[in-house]
Amino acid sequence: MTAAAQSTADAIQRIDSHTVLFGVIGDPIRHSKSPIMMNRAFRETGVNGVYTAFHITADKLGDFIAGVRAMGIRGVNVTIPHKLDVMQYLDHIDESAAAIGAVNTIVNNDGVLTGYNTDGIGYVRSLKEEAEAQLVGKHIVVLGAGGAARGIVYALSKEAPASITIANRTEQRAIELAASMNGVTSVVGVGNDQLERACANADIIINTTSTGMFPHVDESPIDAAWLRPGAVASDIIYNPMKTKFLMDAERAGCRIHGGLGMFIYQGAYAFEYWTGQPAPAAAMRETVLEALQQ
Ligand code: ATR
Question: In angstroms, rounded to a whole number, what is the distance separating the alpha carbons of residues 61 and 102?
């Protein structure tokens, strides 16, 4: 029996009348690595839980949430395209999810459903643990102004960096995103014509666009010659694990940070909200890496 088959067998063995249900919803969903990651986390910590993937189309979203209440599903992760629409069915929206305008994690406390967003804080935890422990006083450039950028900029702004510059192809979206962040950190939005100048002064440059994602692996959102040697180049893409942006940046003398950690830690926070226990992040990463290499 392979290691994967053995662990599935171990998990099934433990299912009993106390087993607590969890899952991820999306459309599509069959590509998701969340079930293997979360079931590994349950096995690792001895939590009697099972986590599966539900293919939920937009017209079934309300029915699904009614099912969560009826069946007492303890926790749900929410992915594309439901992160915004699911909010109307929940009882409470956590402050961070409200500010970001999207929910990726639901906690069910005895029928009371609260929506959280762990994407941005997951990214920041990954960045701090894997690349740059101290964000206070740093100059940060964020490439892109979409949904992913919103969560990341919100979480970064809580870390008291010196500045955050959002650079986007459509300048107006960058300006609007910057204006919606009213924290202590200075956040400005610019068009990509300002990117070279912004990068010259940046300690950390983060790609939140889809540029460079499989199958467009030969594309990069930036000319690496603009980057300061020693700066951190960070990409939220994890397919491929090392994008052209990161390869070019490494050659230019930058430290690099890939996107897998964001996925691991958004899940780690969800696990912690549901169980109250520290997530076994190293084991979760090992399982996802194994699956990605198959
Ligand atoms: P997500 O929710 O994943 O962030 P999104 O909301 O569609 O997705 O945002 C994608 C971001 O990547 C946007 O900032 C987009 O720029 P525009 O606002 O100008 O559309 C950016 N983006 C996508 N493809 C790009 C490309 N080829 N070059 C530059 N920016 C790109």
Answer: 15
Residues 6+ positions from 191 with CB-CB distance below 8 Å: 167, 168, 169, 170, 171, 174
What values do phi and psi take at 248, rounded to 5?
A: -65, -40
The per-residue pLDDT for range 231-241, each reduced to its tens digit, is 999 999 999 99
Rounded Cα distance between 218 and 198, Å, is 24
Instruction: Give Dmax (Cα) for the chain.
Output: 60
Q: In CATH terms, is domain 120-258 a member of 3.30.450.40?
A: no
Taking only the tens place, the pLDDT of each residue in 35-51 is: 999 999 999 999 999 99
Domain boundaries, given as residue ranges, for the chain: 3-117+261-293, 120-258
Task: Tell me the CA–centroid distance for residue 91 and ligand 1, in Å.
Answer: 31
Q: Which of 210, 216, 219, 266 has most ligand 1 atoms within 8 Å of CB, for mutation? A: 210
Tokens of 262: 């964001």
**What angle, 0 to 180 degrees and rounded to 10, lies between the N-to-C axes of helices 34-45 and 3-14?**
60
User: CATH code for 3-117+261-293?
Assistant: 3.40.50.10860
Strand order in the sheet with 255-257: 186-191, 163-168, 139-143, 204-207, 232-235, 255-257
pLDDT, tens digit, 9 for 90 and up, residues 95-116:
999 999 999 999 999 999 999 9
Which residue's C-alpha comes closest to atom 6 of ligand 1? 146
* Cβ–Cβ < 8 Å for 10, 43: yes
Q: Which amino acid is at 244?
A: K
Q: 206 C-alpha to center of ligand 1: Å?
A: 13
pLDDT greater than 60 at residue 1: no
